[in-house]
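Case study 2.
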Amino acid sequence: MRNTHVLTEAAIELALFAVLFLLALYVPVIGIVATLFLALPFMVFTMRHGWIPAMLLLAAALVVSGLIGSLLALPMALMFGTFGIAVGALLSKQRNRYVVLLVGTFVFLANIVLDYIISIQFLHVDLIQDTLALVRESFDTAMRLMEGMGQAPSLEMQRQIEQGLKLIGYMIPTLFVIAALALSYVTIIVSLPVMKRLKLPVGSWPPFRELTWPKSVLWIYVVVLLLSLFPLEEGSFAYMAVLNVSYVLHLAMIVQGFSFLYAVAYKKGIAKGVVVAGTVLCLFLPFLLYLVAIFGIIDLGFDLRRRI
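Prediction:
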């Protein structure tokens, strides 16, 4: 009887996934919204029946996605399927939602990197480098037009723009991490209300002011900063690794700093409106973000929030 119930629900979730997948592939505007819900059937099924039956559902979903789209559609189904199973398994165990978000980010990141490697190795298509080449070509064309009009920008400005394009090329891993984090957060946010309506135990977000990284993150950050002082060859693997890890950890320190400031504001009874306005101001003024990161480093190293 139980097996019949599991199979019936699996068929329902598979049909729901097929409809969402069709919308995501072939309907321009609605498809964007449908894409964000692709992981939902896997989350619900995993929470109700565990990850092993959910893996069988994923296998069936891959077959269906191949029939609906093509072999090129399989990575998309695999990405959201594995994400849904991972998130559903963690939510069923009542894990901290920040842990769920972090694991979901890693799952998306692994899929993005895998898809990027497959695209380069087997399809011989590098979308990022092709896009950067197109931007460089547009930049060169604009420079020639401005020179023809007698309004050529200074050499320093041209050098800065060219350096910025090179930096974007070096920071592809960081861009992947940011994209994975954003996609993970949005996917979880849109899925949680539906799971609540289905009376699934999804828990709640802990207060942001309680968020803190392990102290090992700070030591890794210090080591990376020390490595960045060495003269690494630009474009080398070591150079790109240190550059990307330092940027990702710097973002982590900014998050730690905001968490610390939120905790201080809560203890001091500062109005939420003021806190939100201050956060927005910091996001628009980059030099303030450096101060926030410094607060994060001090808080993580000396447990500052407990001393205030």
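The radius of gyration is 23 Å.
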